[in-house]
Write a structure and sequence with these properties.
Largest sheet: 8 strands, mixed
Number of helices: 17
Number of domains: 2
Strand content: 5-15%
Bound molecules: nicotinamide-adenine-dinucleotide
Strand order of the largest sheet: 3-2-1-4-5-6-7-8
Radius of gyration: 23 Å
Helix content: 40-55%
CATH class of the largest domain: Alpha Beta
CATH architecture of the largest domain: 3-Layer(aba) Sandwich
CATH topology of the largest domain: Rossmann fold
């Protein structure tokens, strides 16, 4: 490892929601950064100083990183001191982890690795993946066997919408395959993280990330189950939880239309896959959250059945408030199902959908409209995502509509 850390070069592989903010932050902190993505348009956009994803402050950071010459992107890895893997780790149809992106990236990277390099897997990964990265590297480059490169896992825990601040401020768990790798990776993060950098082993670091998201998933499943029970009992779940959470040792998370995104809805399955016979609660929580969209769909269907030509407006398509990310979004699934089942004329309002509606909604005839048109024309308002644009809505016009409030928006209005 070089002593003069600010001279370090870093190659970041995968320039999405995690890789691009990380690459541009490192570049503005003085590292020479080479970004790699398999999608040529992503590479071209970044090299122009533009961004292909929505994240506050990211545009300014990328522009300044590219203009200063500290960040360049290409489709091929380049030699560097440090390599960060930030590629997707989805699951397949059987809910088993798909490590093909990590494997492809590790093999490509192996071609340019040199002894003494530090490799950090940041992708959320099932326990044992960092060991597999080491195997893929040494399969491709037997000359790098026996600890000639440092290899560690450092899971990312940023919150979309606050990525730039949290990249710096969050505490980080860093687990190497051996002590030297842990020390090298810890030293690297301490250069730009102001939160605490907490050293451990790779397997603990992998499991820590999965455990964090599983905690949230199980707690949200409790809230979602309570919301369905409360619907049946005629109780306002939002009022209930506000009161129950006044207990000094109770902190129930909020219910919603389901759980989306590529983290909380995915990561618990990595634990289930590793220990199926002992993951009963974790599995059931996932199933509760996965079934919540069906409950919302039934609520909408029941209201629409009272009308002759119902017009239904779905407010929000993203997987959570104030982001543009629609991956694994329950709001998308609900809107799509309502359109496919022709429950009515379906309008969708998504203030963050600057590229228009996703193709799967367009082909079902869903209309992308502004909030004003939705309030004017819809009989049924389905509140799916509490985006800040919706939190500013006046209460009065909503009271004349049938409302299915899956995200607690009404309780947030003035
Ligand atoms: N987005 C989040 O908020 C978040 C938070 C914590 C952890 N994570 C984890 O971080 C990892 C990355 O997530 P993301 O949201 O940034 O994904 P993303 O889909 O936004 O970005 C991944 C990028 O990697 C590129 N890619 C795929 N294979 C590649 C390869 N072989 N070489 C180079 N580039 C390749 C893709 O084209 C894409 O641009 C995942 O494991 C995810 O679970 C994400």
């Amino acid at each position: 490892m070089k002593e003069d850390f600010l001279q370090q070069s870093v190659t970041v592989i995968g320039l999405g929601y995690i890789g691009l903010p990380t690459a541009s932050l490192l570049a503005t902190r003085g590292f020479q950064v080479h970004g790699v993505d398999v999608v040529p348009e992503v590479v071209e956009t970044i090299n122009r100083g533009d961004i292909h994803i929505v994240e506050p402050e990211l545009d300014v950071l990328v522009r300044s990183a590219v203009q200063s010459g500290q960040l360049r992107a290409s489709t091929e890895p380049a030699p560097a001191d440090v390599f960060i893997l930030a590629v997707p780790t989805p699951f397949d149809d059987n809910k088993t982890p798909d490590l093909s992106y990590v494997e492809a990236a590790a093999r490509q990277m192996a071609e340019v690795l040199e002894p003494g390099n530090l490799v950090i897997l940041e992708s959320t990964s099932p326990v044992g993946t960092t060991e597999r990265v080491a195997e893929w590297i040494t399969n491709a480059r037997p000359d790098l066997a026996d600890g000639k490169v440092y290899i560690a896992h450092c899971p990312e825990r940023v919150l979309p919408g606050r990525i730039i601040q949290e990249l710096v401020n969050n505490d980080r768990v860093v687990g190497g395959l051996n002590e030297a790798s842990t020390a090298a990776a810890t030293a690297f993060y301490r250069q730009f993280v102001s939160g605490e950098v907490l050293p451990t082993g790779a397997r603990v670091a992998e499991m820590a990330k999965l455990t964090e998201n599983t905690f949230r998933d199980v707690n949200i499943a409790l809230a979602n189950e309570l919301s369905i029970i409360c619907d049946g009992l005629g109780i306002d779940v939002w009022e209930l939880l506000q009161l129950a959470n006044r207990h000094p040792r109770v902190n129930i998370l909020m219910p919603g239309p389901g759980v989306g995104g590529h983290c909380i809805a995915v990561d618990p399955w990595f634990i289930v896959d590793s220990a199926p016979e002992h993951s009963r609660l974790i599995r059931v929580a996932r199933e509760v959250n996965d079934s919540k969209p069906d409950h919302v769909i039934t609520q909408v269907r029941n209201r629409a059945a009272r009308l002759r030509d119902p017009v239904i407006a779905c407010l929000g398509l993203a997987y959570k408030a104030d982001v543009d990310d629609m991956r694994e979004s329950p709001a998308m699934r609900i809107t799509q199902t309502l359109a496919r089942e022709q429950v009515g004329r379906i309008l969708a309002v998504e203030p963050y959908g600057r590229r228009g509606l996703p193709a799967e909604l367009m082909e079902l005839g869903v209309e992308h409209v502004a909030i004003e048109q939705a309030l004017e024309e819809a009989d049924v308002l389905v509140m799916l995502v509490a985006h800040r644009h919706f939190r500013r809505l006046p209460r009065a016009p909503l009271q004349q509509k049938m409302v299915v409030d899956a995200c607690g928006l009404l309780s947030l209005l003035q």
